[in-house]
């Protein structure tokens, strides 16, 4: 999903000439590119010289451990400023915020080959406990971060809270949502993609990207560093462990496996993908085992939270089939499904054969009360009006992969997967839906519940698409032009999702409100308004 719906890059004639016939609503817009280096934000210059200018983070909570992250970068927007030598960094974990009762400590080397980023795998901690941590090197100390382990495998937590975020185009506005999220009573943050946007700096935007479109490893590193200088984003990382999976913009808009939307030659695009995945790993609190090898990064994984939540994190970019019936560009567009026979081809895949098998086998033996799919996209079908008067679907989303979606839905039913809940992002608007096997059959029952988070800052879909969607009987709620996140509170009998919104992204001091709340009762698929 593109980051800005208001600035069409392709003009409408070029778009229509490609045969899509869609409104220029759901296609292919990006912000016009500025010359590299044209944008120089004044307000977000980090303090030069501080080793820990990018803050601290933790992630991948297990019952006995977490990953601690930082990156030494005294000149973060210009490659980091560290030089070639490895640097020893001391880390400490304490069970008090003042860091007096240290329970684990060690020293690791930060290497230039990995941008002096650290991914410390701490084990031997107690389950479902809050800990504090910090790093020190060259006589400087990092801020103190807070983290939390997962409940023990056999534990029966009475409650689990977490937030769901996606799509944080830095150029588009401020991260007040993260400042408010940092104060929530939650155990972790789930980030479902578009952590950065690859686009060139545009001086007309609220706070422009530095530099041109990101292509090289140096470009991506500087882009992550620019995002990570944001104090609200740093606060959300320092407050909770994160579980993150990228979507498309961490590499390039609408890419599919080794296919660039710009028809970049495969080998060249894979070099870009390798740089992008490496920078993603370097800036996320991922386990060292998740480090990329060339253009491949192992992202899909399972995390359990006692017997309450069995979470499957999916990767919907790296292994997918190309978008069906491509137009002038190879990314998504709106097509009339009756005019695109390729859409229904059962060989087309969203997850790839290996991940699909892993998900089927894992969910068939899921052990939690709630089985959660943390994935990137809106899963329910969104039929949208086209300029031609026809009805179309967006080929980059699950609507572009209907056979794969039906295989998954059939499996959830056949394997009696316990209480499936689908979480998504990408579409820059809130969506609350019934997942069904057949979206055209009004009598088809809900088989799972879906909550899609709106963007932290990225521009939303047009209101006309939301209004069309709201008329579909299985779509319970949708809202665009809102920014924020989902707050999920899970108990054995009831799942609750609050749609948390900020009142502006134009200023850094927005207020938070709950737009709407929905619940799902265990044993009864389908969200209900509260
Ligand atoms: Fe996005
Ligand atoms: Ca996306």
Question: In summary, what is this structure?
Answer:
The chain is an alpha+beta fold.
Features:
8 helices, disordered N terminus, 25 strands, 530 residues, 10-stranded mixed beta sheet, binds fe (iii) ion, globular, binds calcium ion, 7-stranded mixed beta sheet, alpha+beta
Give the helix/strand layout:
Blueprint: H1 12-17, E1 56-62, E2 65-71, E3 87-94, E4 102-110, E5 117-122, E6 130-137, E7 140-141, E8 145-148, E9 160-165, H2 176-181, E10 188-191, H3 217-228, H4 231-239, E11 241-244, H5 266-283, E12 301-305, E13 309-313, E14 334-335, H6 353-364, E15 370-374, E16 384-385, E17 391-394, H7 402-414, E18 420-424, E19 430-435, E20 448-452, H8 463-470, E21 475-479, E22 483-490, E23 494-502, E24 512-521, E25 524-529
Parallel strand pairs: 1-11, 9-10, 10-11, 13-15, 15-18, 18-20
Antiparallel strand pairs: 1-2, 2-5, 3-4, 3-6, 6-7, 6-8, 9-22, 12-13, 14-17, 16-17, 19-20, 19-21, 22-23, 23-24, 24-25
Helix pairs in contact: 3-5
The structure holds fe (iii) ion and calcium ion.
Calcium ion (CA) binds near residues 1, 194 and 248.
């Amino acid at each position: 999903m593109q980051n800005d719906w208001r600035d069409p890059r392709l003009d409408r004639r070029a778009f229509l000439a490609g045969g899509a016939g869609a409104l220029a609503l759901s296609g292919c817009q990006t912000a016009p590119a500025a010359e590299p280096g044209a944008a120089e934000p004044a307000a977000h210059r980090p303090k030069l010289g501080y080793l820990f200018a990018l803050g601290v983070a933790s992630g991948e909570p297990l019952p006995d451990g977490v990953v601690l992250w930082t990156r030494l970068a005294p000149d973060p927007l210009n490659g980091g400023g560290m030089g070639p030598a490895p640097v020893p960094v001391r880390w400490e974990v304490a069970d008090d915020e003042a860091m007096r009762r240290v329970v684990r400590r060690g020293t690791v080397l930060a290497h230039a080959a990995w941008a002096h980023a650290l991914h410390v795998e701490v084990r031997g901690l107690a389950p479902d406990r809050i800990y504090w941590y910090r790093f020190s090197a060259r006589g400087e100390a990092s801020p103190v971060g807070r983290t939390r382990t997962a409940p023990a495998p056999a534990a029966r937590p009475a409650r689990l809270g977490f937030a769901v975020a996606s799509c944080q185009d830095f150029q588009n506005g401020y991260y007040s949502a993260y400042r408010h999220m940092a104060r929530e009573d939650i155990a972790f943050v789930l980030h479902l993609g578009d952590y950065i946007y690859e686009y060139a700096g545009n001086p007309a935007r609220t706070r422009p990207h530095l530099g041109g479109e990101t292509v090289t490893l140096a470009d991506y590193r500087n882009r992550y560093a620019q995002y990570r200088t944001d104090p609200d984003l740093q606060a959300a990382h320092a407050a909770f462990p994160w579980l993150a999976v990228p979507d498309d913009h961490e590499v390039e808009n609408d890419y599919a496996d080794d296919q660039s939307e710009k028809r970049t030659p495969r080998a060249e695009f894979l070099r870009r993908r390798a740089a992008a995945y490496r920078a993603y790993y370097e800036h996320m609190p991922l386990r060292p085992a998740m480090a990329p090898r060339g253009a491949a990064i192992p992202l899909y994984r399972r995390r359990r939270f006692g017997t309450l939540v069995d979470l499957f994190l999916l990767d919907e970019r790296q292994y997918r089939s190309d978008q069906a019936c491509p137009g002038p560009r190879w990314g998504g567009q709106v097509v009339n499904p009756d005019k695109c026979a390729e859409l229904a081809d059962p060989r087309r895949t969203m997850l790839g054969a290996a991940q699909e098998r892993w998900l089927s086998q894992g969910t068939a033996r899921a052990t939690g009360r709630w089985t959660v799919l943390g994935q990137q996209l809106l899963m329910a079908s969104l039929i949208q009006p086209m300029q031609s008067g026809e009805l179309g679907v967006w080929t980059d989303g699950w609507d572009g992969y209907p056979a794969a979606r039906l295989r998954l839905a059939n499996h959830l039913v056949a394997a009696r997967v316990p209480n499936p809940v689908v979480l998504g992002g990408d579409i820059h608007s809130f969506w609350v839906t019934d997942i069904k096997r057949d979206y055209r059959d009004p009598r088809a029952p809900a088989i799972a519940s879906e909550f899609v988070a709106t963007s932290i800052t990225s521009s939303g879909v047009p209101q006309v698409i939301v209004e069309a969607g709201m008329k579909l009987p299985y779509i319970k709620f949708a809202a665009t032009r809102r920014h924020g996140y989902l707050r999920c509170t899970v108990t054995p009998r009831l799942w609750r999702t609050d749609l948390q919104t900020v009142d502006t992204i134009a200023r850094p001091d927005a207020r938070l409100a709950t737009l709407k709340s929905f619940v799902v009762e265990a044993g009864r698929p389908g969200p209900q308004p509260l």
